[in-house]
From TrEMBL:
CDD domains with a match to the protein in the record: AmyAc_Glg_debranch (cd11326), E_set_GDE_Isoamylase_N (cd02856)
Protein name: Glycogen debranching protein
InterPro entries per the UniProt record, alphabetical: GH, GH13_cat_dom, GlgX_Isoamylase_N_E_set, Glycogen_debranch_GlgX, Ig-like_fold, Ig_E-set
Biased composition (Polar residues): 541-551, 834-844
Span of domain Glycosyl hydrolase family 13 catalytic: 212-639
Comp. bias regions, Basic and acidic residues: 531-540
Amino acid sequence: MQNPTLHRYATRPGLYFTDDGGADAIVRSETADQVWFCVIEPVDQPSAFYSEAIRLFPNTSIPLVKQISDFKVCTRIIESTYVRETLFKMEGPNYGLWSVHIPKAWDGMRYGYRVDGAWDPSHGVRFNPYKLLLDPYGKGIDGTMQLDPAAFAYECKLEDGKIVGDPFGKMNTIDSLGKMPVSVAIDDRATTKLDSESVHPHVPWSKTVIYELHVKGFTANAPWLPEELRGTYAGLAHPTTLAYLQGLGVTSIELLPIQASQPEVFLQERGKRNYWGYSTLSYFSPEATYATKAAQQAGASAVRQEVIDMVQALHDAGFEVIMDVVYNHTCEGGSAGPSICWRGLDNLSYYRRQKNNIAYLEDTTGCGNTLDFTNTHVTTFAVDSLRYWAKRIGIDGFRFDLAPSLARLDGEFTRYHPFLYALRSDLLLGNLKVIMEPWDLGNQGWRTGQFGIPFAEWNDRFRDTARTFWLSEAEQTQGNTVGMQEMATRLCGSADLFATDPGRGATASVNFVACHDGFTLNDLTMYSHKHNEANGENNHDGSNMNRSNNFGVEGPSDDPVVMSKRERAAQNLLGMVLLSLGTPMILAGDEFGNSQGGNNNAYCQDNDITWLKWDWLYHSTKTLEMHRLESVSRLISIRKSLDLYHHEDFFTRLSQIGLLKPSSRVQWFLPDGTTPMEQDWFDKSIRSFAMRLLSLNELDVILLVNGACKDKQFHLPADTEWQPLWCSAETTGARPAKGTTVEKVDLSDEDSVWTHFVPKNTRIGQVIQEVQSEQEDIKHRPAVKPYERSNDASDTVMLPGLTGKSRVYRLLAHNVAQQRAALARQHQQKAAGNTAQNRAVNTPETDRQAASEAPKPNVWTVPSMSITIMRQTTLG
């Protein structure tokens, strides 16, 4: 049987340019009475529709909806905004779609929709033809919403900077044109548009190192950029920016939302904006404010091209681009919010509603509304949007904000949700990186590890374990909640959470200790309490459960002991992220110690609080920030060089059912060289242990965790020699050494050599000269003062650098190290007999055999509160 002829508009919604010079406009509204397609033109230019349109004049006795309903095409002039609006009456609904063909269309055409229907807020219906609505599929945006009663579908007024009115009251008849953004058409018919598309890096999960950054915040203060490129897509694509990212060594750049966003009403009432961008205005349009001024002036097509060029530049430099997306809610907020797009088009279809009261929206996001992914067309809308960003813009993957809200049926989460299956089965999206934020505010909203293959997930259990061990319980002697067992589970890729499907394992765990939402890494070590006063919410916003530690001083400190503890803790956290099995993610700026002044919810701070500070970069001597950066870069390079971290078979479901014994890939040791017994795993006072990753054809590595507040001797496996690769204590003056004492590290007077070779006639050369001349100014030099000896009897020295707090390094005194070593030897001799006697019965067979062979001790002393990675020197 032959298929019937396809209806011209039986297609996806959107605006499609046609070969006759016009365009087909299609929009979905399943419950509307009438829909109009509206083109906005300037009054002082000839109209493209003069021959077709009937001119309307203001008439207060006839409602607008009556005037525009009488004609197929009509036009009117709105003098207050100096524009001409031409309205095309659409046909429909045809399976929920409304359509019209307009005779002329052009790239950059500004347009929107007006929708008429019932006004019955008590039943969730809020049609209002006086509100110009965005195209949900629009590829460009022009303008922003103004805090004005015209933006709201219900009668309201502006009092003392706040919107006051009853969202369930009468319909507002104030026209919103001029007070709201409009959609902008982009002609995508060019056959050569993808000719210059770069090659996608396609980094395997097992080799991925994610770097989360904000497009504007990363370069807003960047001194290597000319002013016009700072805070822009083009600034992120600048060669010097790319060189910095390459020097750091990350593989995948995860961008905070770059889809067009709109500040929530309560933020606009306070004169603030949603800096993070988690308040989506358009799912197809890029955020225009991140484009250069030249691109913004050139229009939506130029803005989008700047985004495409940025992605291609990152690809050409070897980076993947992952985009943070917010499909769980829109910028329209709750019922009292504005009518910008979805609410005015089809409030019942787009948003989830409370089961017992259809008038009110379900809110599992904390943002007032939740998109209804039980509606097939909402799922299709999201998939269409994702495919557009992947295919047309070149995005390599997506991170889904509050992902459980996208996978709820009848309010309950299910890993078998149609949207998740749509992502898995799509030929394009199914081959991209897809990362879930596995929690929301709905019923049983914590779903870490439950999304299944092929999705990766942010691992908050890893975050909390690492913070607790290295920060909040770092100096506790009793009452610890995190011990060796919990740490071992996280270091091995959280098999308890992610070994859920055949083939799913450690790489599905995105390991992190800091992200955009919460304290930065440095603030975790500087503040025991949040300091969000600048947000204007009386410090009530943001999490109170941070597991942070200020190490005795709240905020910045010049005390060398405090600074040393903080730096050591930060390095421990970075080391745990990058040395654990799984997919590591670090927050931009953590590699050099960026701070937000203790603000752990800086979502509304578009200023120096959130913009990264780069003034440390061009000094002639290495600052604390530079030492941190070099340490992190070396650590990333080490991880990428170790093939053991590139396997995906650690603790998959196969290991859970016994087909792959975990012991064939990893071994555990206590500092005395023995294998932990059952009671050791449950003894949370044990904070020092070793983890050995084994391979038959690669060099083994061993991870030494010393969570004690003193240097500790580790008896390493004697079947090979070991070479230290990295230690978290190096930037604070110590590293592991074979024998009974740690090795001192002198970081004083290290030159930042690269600054000597930059040509002075270049922009960067000029910046270096300015910074270094300021550094030489006596007013910028620190006052030299003696530093008191710390409680653990270590010495301090003065190092040159940028600021007083970054000039001080704590170095272990040689004589103190010798005293500690002598005491350790005495303790070891006394304890040797007891240790052998106590473990004689329960020591595993491998330990007894090793003891009988009596190999030469392989003893290394590891600095206190540190994490170290070592590699065997020869294979075999």
